[in-house]
Amino acid sequence: MPRRSPSRDEQHTRADARRNREKILSAASAVISESGADASLEEIARRAVVGSATLYRHFPSRAALLQATFHDRVVTLCDRAEELAETADGPTALVAWLRELVSHAAATRGLVAALVELPSVGRYEDSHRLIRQAGQRLLSRAQTVGSVNADITVDDVLHLANGVVVAAEALGDAARSADRLMDIVVNGLVVQGRLQPLPK
Question: Which one of 45, 78, 97, 128 is most buried, counting C-beta atoms within 10 A?
């Protein structure tokens, strides 16, 4: 028996559901950045301009919302890696992405800590795999042209980025400290004279 095509009303309902989900994730990302992983779900629903019932229909638990929010941020970061790979040379793309990764890590430190405590961290592990793949592609491009030493691994780079976030928080004025520490990391990571201005 042939499958019935969805009616126009059904298509409209699905589109509304997708939009609501996107609005919830966007609001969750903003509220969690401001208030941490313990952010009020009611505030997230209010920012998303949806009812609490709609939020729970999409994300039946806080854990589900945290995992989806983190994964959504990771996908955005990986998309950015693809964009940089197509528009900038190897070392410039790698450094630009690392700076964005540091900003991402700073905004999600509380979120990551909360995810690690969950009984199931499958989505978190999947997100980590995606980040490693994106970083590996950019690192390999930079290494191919001799801008980064061949013995440096993607895990080395990711640990450096995380270390910058931790150190910047300890120093105070996290954003400014992170920029300064990233300058030091870049000077040690990339062969001098290989960085070009990032295209606008």
Answer: 97
